[in-house]
Write a structure and sequence with these properties.
Blueprint: E1 26-29, H1 31-39, H2 50-59, E2 63-68, H3 71-79, H4 83-93, E3 99-103, H5 116-129, E4 133-136, H6 147-155, E5 159-165, H7 180-192, E6 197-202, H8 209-222, E7 227-231, H9 238-247, E8 252-255, H10 269-276, H11 287-301, H12 320-324, H13 328-340, H14 347-360, H15 370-384, H16 396-403, H17 415-422, H18 444-450, H19 458-466, H20 468-478, H21 493-507, E9 527-533, E10 536-543, E11 550-557, E12 608-611, E13 616-621, E14 628-629, E15 634-640, E16 643-648, E17 653-658, E18 665-666, E19 671-675
Parallel strand pairs: 1-2, 1-8, 2-3, 3-4, 4-5, 5-6, 6-7, 7-8
Antiparallel strand pairs: 9-10, 10-11, 12-19, 13-15, 13-18, 14-17, 15-16, 17-19
Helix pairs in contact: 2-11, 5-6, 5-19, 7-8, 8-9, 13-15, 14-15, 16-17, 19-20
Bound molecules: cobalt (II) ion.
């Protein structure tokens, strides 16, 4: 019996118009979304996609991933670009190849479950703006979170790709929860929902080649829909897994153009194309055409992004997953979090605590946002717990998870942990079992009212509804009501060249010679550059009054200092920027943070200080100066590593002196307010 899927070598033919293969592997290109999200902090600008757009359209990709994931957040926040406009612009250049987006199911392109009315409007507008394929995933693989968006995707006549998030609890696929039966049953669920294709989404590069073979073979036997493999390179296994998946009959593989490939991104397309030439699974791609596209990327685009590449290590692979079964990106986030808390020596405790916390929280997959939820809770436990009490500082997101707001966990949440987390939880102490969005109030009408006079169309309203603080700021930039800061403006190749010269000077130790010359007064022509020398960060003001650049000032900033400009110093390019979450379903509940008693208070204010137990950003103060509070009452919500922490009054009394306001970054032990 001949096996349609078996890879057979037929005839080597490298010519551009070689005969089509019997069963070509289809390729989705991720360069314009996951590629720059993984390597360059999602900072890719539309203007840097246009030079390659028409050529990319000619390759013959199954689809181009152009939107979704962190792009929506980063564009409006750091690039002063309208995310909706990107789809429309690229559509003018790319007319043949379908567009694909990554949709976080009921989380859309944000970090919480949104109400049904907003989810419906979002998918409808994405579709009307030109999106063709909706790759939909849920961090818990709870497909009730798909129901609303899938209905709209289908109504719009678009392609619904259902994802199964790939995760592990053992060194290889298997164990009690995430075994082959789990993936097969999830695929059947997706097929029953009408999935046009099914994607095994291995966001952390966990899948080992022979496991890829086994699971793809099983999925191909169990369902009719095409099987698509998305496997990040992170651990170094993905090119091997791709090949084994192809041998098992996978239909579609995700890759990047080589400048956007490897590290935490994806394997490059070119080696795969060459590997398959002459077989019945030949992609049919013209390798010379791919080289031409790379040439444009290298010359015209990469110089603007190279500095964003995390080159803190020589190795391009991260073997964390091979050691700890935990996504590489997640572990490096934890390391950074510990470093900020001066607690790096506790890393081994974190490695030990992590599987335990994950199990207690329902053995959930580790993907945005659950990887952060589990990771930060683990750090909190290691830092704040003692031998008498665990889970002393529970984040708002863990409370939401325990309540059921993210959906159903793979195994039940530990009942003691759940009870503790839900004590005083405002939505109720009894967890829900229904589809999470059923308990969410509609939110679109309120967003319309909030943006009256500012939003010009529904797309604007949705931008605001998804990201109230930064979305509103963006709309003010867009309609000229506020000037966007220099930091969000695009940089030209000429500016890059100047900056590189500055770096050269800095390396020679010549950047600090400004004291030898008397600095001229600053003028309006001043432009600010971020300059990085190894791990040091300088903010450099540059003026050009007709001659060569004059350096007006150099301000050295400590590494890791929270800066409000694009997070160039961000240690992990894959990490999305921390979003302020004013309207999150998260809500405070009593978990005293235990500030140190003998803290210095601001001059003239007497009382007990409430200090930040960790560095972070103030989401909001729930009390004003003069308000009376009880001991243990929540006073301020502090966001650290995207997680919200409710900080309680260390004593009863009136709130005196509040030192910060919403949006401010604070350091560990900063006095947030004084109560007396
Ligand atoms: Co990905």
């Amino acid at each position: 019996m001949s096996d349609h899927n078996q890879v057979k070598i037929t005839k080597m033919d490298y010519s551009k118009d070689r005969p089509a293969a019997e069963n070509p592997v289809k390729i989705q290109d991720l360069t314009l979304r996951d590629g720059h999200q993984s390597l360059f902090a999602t900072r890719g600008r539309t203007e840097d996609m246009i030079p390659v757009a028409e050529k990319m359209d000619e390759v013959g990709f199954w689809a181009l991933e152009t939107w979704g994931g962190a792009t929506f957040d980063t564009m409006h926040r750091f690039l002063n670009e309208d995310p909706w406009e990107r789809i429309r612009t690229l559509k003018r250049y790319i007319t043949k190849t379908p567009f694909s987006m990554l949709l976080r199911a009921q989380n859309l392109v944000g970090y919480r479950n949104y109400a049904d009315d907003l989810a419906e409007a979002f998918v409808k507008r994405a579709s009307e703006n030109g999106m063709d394929i909706f790759r939909t995933f849920d961090a818990l693989n709870d497909y009730r979170n798909f129901e609303t968006v899938v209905r709209v995707i289908k109504e719009c006549g678009k392609h619904f790709q259902g994802c199964i998030c790939y995760t592990m609890t053992e060194p290889r696929m298997g164990g009690e929860v995430y075994n082959i039966d789990y993936y097969v049953s999830k695929a059947k669920d997706l097929e029953a929902m009408g999935a046009d294709s099914i994607c095994l989404k291995d966001m952390a590069g966990l899948i080992a080649p022979y496991d890829a073979y086994a699971v793809v073979k099983a999925l191909k036997a169990a369902v009719k829909a095409p099987i698509h493999l998305h496997s990040h390179f992170t651990s170094g296994m993905s090119p091997m897994s791709h090949l084994k998946a192809i041998e098992a009959g996978v239909d579609i593989i995700d890759t990047c153009m080589s400048p956007y490939a490897y590290r935490t991104s994806h394997a490059a397309v070119e080696p795969l194309v060459m590997t398959l030439i002459g077989t019945n699974r030949d992609t049919g791609f013209d390798i010379k055409q791919l080289a031409e596209i790379n040439e444009i990327f290298e010359k015209k685009v990469m110089p603007k992004y190279r500095h964003l590449l995390d080159d803190s290590k020589v190795s391009i692979i991260d073997i964390s997953v091979l050691l700890h079964q935990t996504p590489g990106g997640m572990l490096s986030n934890l390391v950074n979090q510990l470093r900020e808390m001066d607690a790096l020596h506790k890393i081994d405790e974190v490695y030990k605590e992590l599987p335990r916390v994950r199990k207690e929280l329902g053995q959930i997959p580790l993907v945005t946002p659950t990887s952060q939820i589990v990771g930060i809770q683990t750090v909190n436990n290691v830092l704040f717990d003692d031998e008498n009490e665990r889970y002393k500082m529970i984040t708002g997101q863990v409370k939401d998870l325990c309540y059921g707001l993210y959906g159903k966990t793979a195994i039940p949440i530990d009942s003691d942990v759940q009870k503790k987390a839900l004590k005083g939880y405002p939505r109720g102490e009894e967890p829900i079992t229904c589809r999470p969005a059923e308990v969410l109030e509609p939110e679109l009408e309120q967003a319309k009212r909030d943006t009256e006079g500012l939003a010009q169309d529904l797309d604007d309203v949705i931008t605001y509804a998804l990201y109230p603080v930064t979305g509103k700021r963006f709309l003010n930039w867009k309609y000229g009501k506020e000037d966007p800061p220099e930091a969000v403006k695009a940089r030209t190749l000429e500016e890059i060249k100047k900056e590189e010269e500055l770096v050269k000077l800095a390396k020679l130790g010549k950047l600090v010679q400004k004291s030898e010359k008397k600095a001229p007064p600053k003028t309006d022509a001043i432009r600010t550059f971020n300059v990085f020398v190894d791990n040091e960060y300088f903010e450099v003001g540059v003026e050009e009054p007709g001659g060569s650049p004059i350096i007006s000032y150099v301000q050295q900033l400590p590494a890791g200092v929270p800066v409000s400009r694009p997070a160039l110093a961000a240690p992990k390019p894959a990490a999305a920027p921390a979003p302020p979450k004013p309207a999150a379903p998260a809500a405070p509940a009593p978990t005293p943070p235990k500030p140190k008693a003998a803290a210095p208070t601001p001059a003239g204010v007497e009382g007990t200080p409430l200090k930040a137990p960790m560095p972070g950003m103030i989401v909001k103060y729930l009390k004003q100066v003069g308000d009376e509070v009880n001991k243990g009452e929540t006073v301020v919500i502090l966001e650290a590593m995207k997680m919200e922490n409710a900080l309680q009054a260390p004593a009863a009394g009136a709130v005196k002196g509040i030192n910060f306001s919403s949006g401010d970054s604070v350091a560990k032990d900063d006095v947030l307010c004084v109560i007396g």
